[in-house]
């Protein structure tokens, strides 16, 4: 190899070494910049997450600030959903078929020249968890029971009604003895007596178990010791029992009740 050729080879090797070193340096710089950028982004990401959590917190508390509403309560199959659709949608009671609600439905019913929010609350015992929260916004309660099946529906109806009465609520209740036009339907006086007995049983059981309900809410003690429960004497909520037929009867008594709430 000549001297000039040796110099050219050494020069090429030096250039390649410098290029390799430059490439390695560039990668190091890029990694450093990326790391720095990530470090700079961490506080921003944390701030965004915190903001989302705060928003979620206030949205979750928004349910407590829902507008007042009249609740439609009662056991499954009592006729609440049909009543709801008649009040809110103007549905024809005789021509409308419904199924038991799995979720609460809310709408607006015309009454007294204005409107009132109405909530159809599910009657199934597994779906009653949110009832305690809904009671806090209750302007009134329309309780519906199938009077033609009063004996069968009395126990589940009493469980719902007991939760209402022992919640500390003082809202008035319109108790509709629905399907009163059917053969064998119990009169309002008879339904009231049956419900009083069922509430009395739950009251005694509740006293033995404790003052906390299944929903975790404190319970108000109902009635007097050694005295049977009586709606007129012991109910903290003024309760009116009326005969009714959701399919054929005019909604006048219900609309009047809504307007008075």
Number of domains: 2
Give the class from helix and strand content and strand pairing: alpha/beta
Helical residue percent?
A: 40-55%
Question: Main β-sheet: number of strands, strand sense, barrel status?
Answer: 6 strands, mixed
Under CATH, the topology of the largest domain can be stated as: Rossmann fold
The first-to-last residue Cα distance is 110 Å
CATH architecture of the largest domain: 3-Layer(aba) Sandwich
Number of strands: 6
How do the strands of the widest beta sheet line up side by side?
2-3-1-4-5-6
Low-confidence stretches: 1-22
Architecture overview:
This protein has a six-stranded mixed beta sheet, with helices on both faces. The chain has seven helices and six strands. It is 48% helix and 15% strand. It is of the alpha/beta class and 261 residues long. A hairpin with a 2-residue loop joins β2 (105-111) and β3. The protein starts with a helix and ends with a helix. It has two domains: 1-65; 68-260, P-loop containing nucleotide triphosphate hydrolases (Rossmann fold, 3-Layer(aba) Sandwich). α4 crosses α5. It has helices at residues 3-61, 80-89, 131-135, 150-165, 188-209, 231-234, 252-260; strands spanning 69-73, 105-111, 114-120, 138-146, 173-178, 239-243.
In short:
The chain has 261 residues and is of the alpha/beta class.
Give the helix/strand layout.
Elements: H1 3-61, E1 69-73, H2 80-89, E2 105-111, E3 114-120, H3 131-135, E4 138-146, H4 150-165, E5 173-178, H5 188-209, H6 231-234, E6 239-243, H7 252-260
Parallel strand pairs: 1-3, 1-4, 4-5, 5-6
Antiparallel strand pairs: 2-3
Helix pairs in contact: 4-5
């Amino acid at each position: 190899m000549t001297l000039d050729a040796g110099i050219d080879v050494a020069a090429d090797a030096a250039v390649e070494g410098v290029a390799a070193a430059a490439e390695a340096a560039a990668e190091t710089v890029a990694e450093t910049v990326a790391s720095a950028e990530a470090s700079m982004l961490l506080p921003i990401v944390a701030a965004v997450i915190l903001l989302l959590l705060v928003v979620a917190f206030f949205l979750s508390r928004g349910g407590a600030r829902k507008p007042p509403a009249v609740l439609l309560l009662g056991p499954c199959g009592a006729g609440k959903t049909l009543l709801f659709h008649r009040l809110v949608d103007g549905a024809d009671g005789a021509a409308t078929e419904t199924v038991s609600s799995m979720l609460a439905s809310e709408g607006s019913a015309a009454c007294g020249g204005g409107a009132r929010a109405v909530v159809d609350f599910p009657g199934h015992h597994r779906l009653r968890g949110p009832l305690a929260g809904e009671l806090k916004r209750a302007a009134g309660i329309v309780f519906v029971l199938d009077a033609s099946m009063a004996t069968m529906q009395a126990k589940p109806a009493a469980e719902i009604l007991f939760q209402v009465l022992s919640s500390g609520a003082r809202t008035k209740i319109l108790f509709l003895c629905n399907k009163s036009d059917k053969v064998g339907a119990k009169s309002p006086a008879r339904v009231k007596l049956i419900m009083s007995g069922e509430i009395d049983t739950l009251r005694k059981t509740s006293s033995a178990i404790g003052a906390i309900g299944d929903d975790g809410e404190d319970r108000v003690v109902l009635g007097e010791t050694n005295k049977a429960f009586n709606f007129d004497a012991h109910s903290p909520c003024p309760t009116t029992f009326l005969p009714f037929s959701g399919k054929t009867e005019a909604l006048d008594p219900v609309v009047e009740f809504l307007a008075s709430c």
